[in-house]
Every structure is written in C-alpha cells, then in structure tokens.
Records
---
Amino acid sequence: MLTSKSYNPLATRAYEVVLIGTREVKNVKCLVTNKITYLPITHDLQGIDSLIFTSRYAIRALLESANPLSPHYNPHLAKWREIPSFVISPKSAEILYQHNAKVEFVGQKAHGQEFAKEIIPLLQNRFPIYLRAKEIVSQLNATLINAKVPLQEVIAYVNTPLTLEQNLKPKPQSVLIFTAPSAYKSFVANFSWEYEYIAIAIGKSTFASFSPTLQAYISPKPSIPHAIEFAKSIALGLNTQNARK
C-alpha cells in the first residue's frame, strides 16, 4: 500500500511511478484501490467443452473452488484441466500452464473485443463457459452471443472499490499506471485529479475509461512489466527536462 506523506510543495519535482490496481508488485510503488473477492463456482461443467478466461482472477477463483481443501470445494470441477481453455493473454495463460491445464488459444492483443473476434471462429459448434467478473467492460459475452455462440457464464469474482485515506494520494508529480478501468474509477472516487498527473493505461479498455482531459498514454504492450518500464521512461524524460530548467 502506498505510504508516502502528503505532497510538500518545497520537495523535489521529480516524477515517480505509481502502479494502481488490485495488487502490489515488487520494485515499484503501488496503491491498492480495489479488493478482489473470489466466489464459489457451483457449475457442474456438464456439456461444457471450452473454458474462456479474460482475467487471472477468474482462473484463481476456479482453482479455489476445485481445491479439495477449500470450504467451497466443488467436486464437479475435478477435471476442468482437461477442458480446452481460451485465455486473453500470455500472462494469464502462464497460470494455466503452471497447473497443467489444456490451453487451446492465447489472445495476442489482450483486449476484450479483439479477443472475442479472435475466438469466435474457433468456438463454432462448441459449448463454452465464460468465467468472469461480476461487472465487465468489454462486453465480450454480448459479442459472442450475437455471433450465435451458445455461451454459458459464471460470475467467478467481485471487484470492490476501496475507500482510502487522503494521505495515500500520490503527489502531483506522478506517472500513474492503471491496470483496469475499475482502478481508475476507484482512484478518482477517492482523490481529486492533479493536472500534473500523467496516466498510463495497461490496455485499450482502460484507456477508454479515462476522462478525455487527461494527459494519458497506452502501454506499448498490455502487461504490467511493460507498462512499468514505459512509465519509468516517461518519468525519466520529465525529470531530465525539469533538471534543465
């Protein structure tokens, strides 16, 4: 959790990078604005021949409900690894590989609508289930249904915004990385926006959620490590520029 003190106008004007979202990452300052709660998955997977994931949290929720030691254990999920998975990004696919799951397709653009277009041809004559958040932005489900894919859906987790103390607000000279639209929404609900803030979106859906008045960019690649490196390069450029003034 971000623990920096309130901004001191006499302090250095050096820009710093802050990652904003649902979890902390090593080697970068983080501000957790949202809490993830996994929900019990009670579906029996009867007749299902494809699994769709657009979030690592949905995968984690499935792992939780398929774990015999979990209070929410569902024995009908025991063979989920044998069902081919369609996953939105390589990072999420890594979790599936780690658990010896069968991965049939990995999206290359990590954006809901583009992922939907990628998998529609692959899901013809298939019976998929989409494990998702309670609230979604991309409308991937509607896109698949409109394409006549006989989609089933399970709400696997809930993303809840947190109420934060004002002393956690990043200083004006900050490059803020938002990992999801929900992170940006929670941030602006907690704090006023400083005109000096620079926003970095991890992907197109997050960028589209930004106010049009922001100075904002999209990470060259839709992953947290790439977004951090991109934000650091922007901060370095600004700090070099300020040092010359």
Note: The first strand starts at residue 16 and ends at 21.
---
Amino acid sequence: MYAIVEIAGQQFKVSKDQKVYVHRLPNAEDEKVTFSNVLLIDNNGAVTVGAPAINGASVEAKVLKHLKGDKVLVFKKKRRKGYKVKNGHRQYLTQIVIENIVVK
C-alpha cells in the first residue's frame, strides 16, 4: 500500500515505515504530524484517485529530526568579461517517518 501525498508544497510517494526528507516543517522533534492532502492511494492494486484530493484520507507521520542538506555550489561566469561569482546553499530539511496511511 502506498500513497501520493503533498507535503510542504511537494508531492511524495510514501508507504508505511518509510523515512522521507522534506522541506523544513514547523513541528518539533518527536511530534506527530498529519497530512490530509492525499492525491492517490494504491491499496494492493485498488487505485483511488482524488479530484484533486481524496476526502477522509490522511497520512500520519512522526518528525524524527531537523537537519541541513548537502551543500550545493552555484557558480556563475560570463566569458571574456572577468565576471565570476561562487555561492553555496544548504537547504533546511526535516526527516519524517510515515506511521500510517488512513483511508475512510
């Protein structure tokens, strides 16, 4: 059984006991979170598609920890002009574990 759910503006394919890295959530560590914007559920071949979301369906998760992602280097250059800029960026992430997919 898996579901496609929208978390923090992005869509994720999740299943039970799966760990997922999402954009930083405002919840504290070890706190339960419920995502109600479930777009699709596949229950052993029985597919339910929402329009746009499935009424009564939700995904329950637990926040494991907050962390920062790997550094991404951004390098800009314009040839023959002497213009070079090097920047770095580290995204703030939250690791969650999916505890349950609820279907009504």
Note: The longest strand covers residues 58-78.
---
Amino acid sequence: MSFSLKDQAAIDKARELLSEAGIWDVETDLDCLIDRYLERRCKDRARDEFMLAVHERCNRIPLGHIVGAVDFDGLPLTIGTGIFIPRPHSQIIHKWLENESQVPQGATVLDLCSGSGAIGLAIAKYRPDLKVTCVEYDDVAFQYLTRNINRLANWAIKAEALKADLWDWQAFSHFNESVGLIVANPPYVPEQQTILPEWEEHHPYTSVYSGNDGLDLTRLIIKQARQLLQLNGWLVIEHGESQGERVRALFSDAGFSLIRTIIDEDISDKTGSSVITVGCKLI
C-alpha cells in the first residue's frame, strides 16, 4: 500500500515514538493505528463495522459512545460509554471568555463537573496563560479526563486534574479566595423530565439529572464560588433556557454582581439552547 509523503513521514515518526516508549510489538500496534486512522485495508470489514455502528445509532446509542471520540471546537477528545458527551453548546463558555471577560493573565481557573475535560481544555487552548484545574469525582469520567489532559499536552495544551467531590468543601480549601474564574456545566435536568433517549437511557444518571428542579448542583456550586473566588472573580454556569430567571436569582441571593444570562443562537440546536449565566464577586 502506498502512502503520501506526509503520511509516510507520520508513520516513520510513529514507529520511532512507539519504539522509544517501550511498546513490545511496535509493528502490530502501528498496523492497527494505520488501519484506524490513515487507511482501512479491508474494505469489507470496514463496511461491516460501518453497518454495526449504524444499527447502534438507530438504537439511540450516542454517536460519541459508538466512535469513542468527539470533536469539541477542534479538540479531539477521547470518550466512551459511562461518560457524558460534551455538546457544542458548551463552547459558549470559552467564547464568553475570549470576547467579553476581564479574567486577568495568570489567573487560576476551576472547571467543575469537568467530565472529559472539554471546557477546561478549551479554555487552556485559548488562554494558555491561565492555570486550569479540571475537577471530576466519577471514577470513569476521571479516567477519561486524565487521558485527555495527557493526550492534549502533546499539543502544548496544559491543565491539571483534581478528583474531588463537590460536596466535600474541605477538598477545595486550598483554593479559598484565590480563583479568578469558575466554570461549570453541571447536570441541570429536573428528575421527572422526559428527554431524548440518548441522554435519558445512555448517559450516567448523575451527569444529566439534579433534583426536582434540576438545580441542586447549581446551588451548591454558587455557594462554593463565594468561598473560592477572589474579589473580581467570575462564575459561569451552563443551564437550560427555561432556568435563566431562577439561576439569576440564585446568583443574586449569593451576592454576585454584573449578573446576566447569555444565549448563543449560533451553537443552539434542536436538542436545546446554548445558555450560560455569568456573575462577578465584587464584594
């Protein structure tokens, strides 16, 4: 099989890297990786696997769980069954950071409910000066989080991973009044609400639902943010469009200022709107 000069150069470099890493069967692993990412060698098998994937998708298995990957604003993230698949809607957070925020150079950032690390890693991509820590508690999600952090470090995208339960305030005590930005896409669907089977049946329950009104974890994050943020620090939380008024009230009750809800129509779709509420700790 012939390859382009660029592909052949990549294969040669891959062989060198696999050898240096101590991989015990370099050529077999390399053949598998070439077949997966550069050129399918057996077209019949490729068609069979394609139809298996189609049937799984028809059974409403999420696409990301079928292919084991998702592209989040140019970041190729590894994901799988048992983890929440980041949606394009969450790009609104780093778009806000790029275009509207006043988060200073070198600030500490916490990405809570990080899952695969999509939001935190996107922030690290666009603002490499920031010190990003992605926080996740679920064992499966944390494995994917650390894997994506280590993977994208090869692109000079840097973030830290912290395994911590958001209900354990002591786990965050070393961040008290030192954080410049907290971002979160917590579960926000009310427990009795019926949603598409991709999320209702094939995502972890705790990554989707959060109490009777969907805001239990949002309330906790807002309370924590008052303790963790420094003066002039920002809190950004993703939520459902119908929850905007209630979330703004929670921000206000906690003493935040400059509160507003932002909807991005460009990255909204039939599964829902892209919505965040932002607020600043001024006192």
Note: The mean pLDDT is 94.
---
Amino acid sequence: MRDSRPQSLDTLFEDAATVGKSPLQVIQQHAIALLKLNRTVLSLLPAQLHPWCRVANYRKQILVLEAGNASWMTRLRYEIPCLLSTLRSEILPSLSSIDIRINPSLMVKSDNNEQGFSKSSTKAFSNDNQELPKRQLTHESAKTLMMLAENSPEKLKRKLERLAALAGEGTSTARKKR
C-alpha cells in the first residue's frame, strides 16, 4: 500500500548521500530513462509513426506505448514483434510485452509539428465562439428534414422541424445551451 500521508518538503529535496535516494531523484532518473527509451523506440519504428506514438512508461517488465488514435495503434501493432525482439536483444532483456494505449493528445501535439503552439492551435483551445468556423443549413436540406418530420414520431418531428427552421442562418460549430 502506498504511503499517502503528507510529507515535509525537506525529505523530497534531501541530499542522496544522507538518505539514499530522494523521491524526486528517483522520479527524475525514471523520466530520463523513459526519454532515452523513447528515442531508441522511435529509431526502430518507421518514420511515419514518429509523430503519432511515444513511450509512456516501463514498469513490471511491460513497455507501455501511446498512439494518437486507433488507426495508428493498429499500425503500431504490426511493428510489435520486430520491436519486441530488437529491444530484448539490445536494451531490455527482461521485457515481457508491449502494451499500446490511445492518447488523443498526441494528435493535437503532432498537428503543431513539434514547433510549439502556433496561433491557429491556440485559437482551437480558446473559448471564443467568433474564432470557430460557421456552418449553414441549406434550404434543400431543410425541405428534406421537413419531409422526414412528416413520417416521424411526435418528439422527433418537433426536433426536426426546429432544426429545419434554422435554414439560411449561420450557426456556430459549438453547442448552444438551451
């Protein structure tokens, strides 16, 4: 069981010579090892996978990789046998398996091409509705919705008619609260 009691900051920053290894040093060493492992794994993978995957963790002899979405995860799974045998023979002889998880934040990060956040990416994260692209329902689509509403149950009919009434108006891509 993990010790979750509050700790003094002094114990986190104490010198390694007096106490052994401080918790922050252990975390720092693990992070450095993961960065080195990430570089090695990326060098073994095809170039098109580099922006879409990374090493997330290595513990209990299991390497955890993250992929940007399900399609990149599937592509990465094809590389597991080669990756597993190479890592076992060169770096991690105790490696038992590789686990892949989806992390959608890799898709956002990779859109910036590792150049930091550009103006367009920061706009996507802002809450200004003026920055979002506008959508518009055409009159033809409104007629189709009205025809569909004629043969629909009452509850659905009201919603389709309300949607058809928006024809010609510009609507934001963000949801409006009602």
Note: The radius of gyration is 26 Å.
